[in-house]
Amino acid sequence: MAAPFRTVPRILVLNRFFVLLVLLVIAIPTFAVALSRSGGVDPCDFQGDCVSSSIVYFRSNPDHTLYLGDAFSVPVSITAGSNTSSYSVSWSYDQSIFEKSGDTFTVVGNETGVFTISAAVAFSEAGNATESNSTLTTSQSVTVIPLEMTLKTRVVNMTDPDGNVFRNSDGTFYRNDSFCESWSATFQFAGQRTDIKINVTSVAPSLRVLNYSADPLGRTGRFCYVVETDAPYEPYNTTLVARALNSEGVSLGRKSSSQPFAVVHYDPQFTAYAYMEYGNSTAPTSLERP
Question: For residue range 62-88, what is the model confidence (pLDDT) as tens digits?
Fold first, then answer.
């Protein structure tokens, strides 16, 4: 006679399933790992811990690229799960490029490119039966670019009250002649970066500076000179050196431009001559220069 079929009570099956489910819930947090961020989703673990970050620019270009000396912050938002007992934050970044104070970073290195700032948050969770740890990481990327300056210079003639030019027709100068050298300097985002000024200095052998003028940001200006009375008769170069400085005086870039000039011996030649009778002041005579 065959043994009768044994029926397992439904309540026993449900109890076993419940026990298995509880064991899985207890075991899973021990192996908790950060979920990878995909499509801008902030990482969370299975205990309800979550982290996220954003980036706030204090000094930057309009497209959020950065020059040397620019600054930004990476505030981190942390949500702790119900069983989290503590957490700590550690940062990962290129210390040769950035200087950190709290969650604020300043560009101090001369390298350019794309750099990542990461914050790793380590959570400690205490449960009824076990204690587990998990680490979640959030990151932000910034782009550092070089400040590339353009400097254009040109020689500007000076005249006396009668409109006569203090310069020879071949471009040379006599001692005690005068001229100016003007400049125009710019760089990418120069119109928006009013916190960056351009300081221009002059290297001008055998010349004495008569005056100097520039706009408040140093984008345009001029130096005016007089040739020294003891200047040797030879060719020279005037050189203007422009440096871009941020609000803290940090040099962000440098550019120079030179203009040639020559000092020649004064050797006047008469180009026309007519005999003047005594007392006749209207006879035609002329020189190359007044």
Answer: 999 999 999 999 999 999 888 888 899
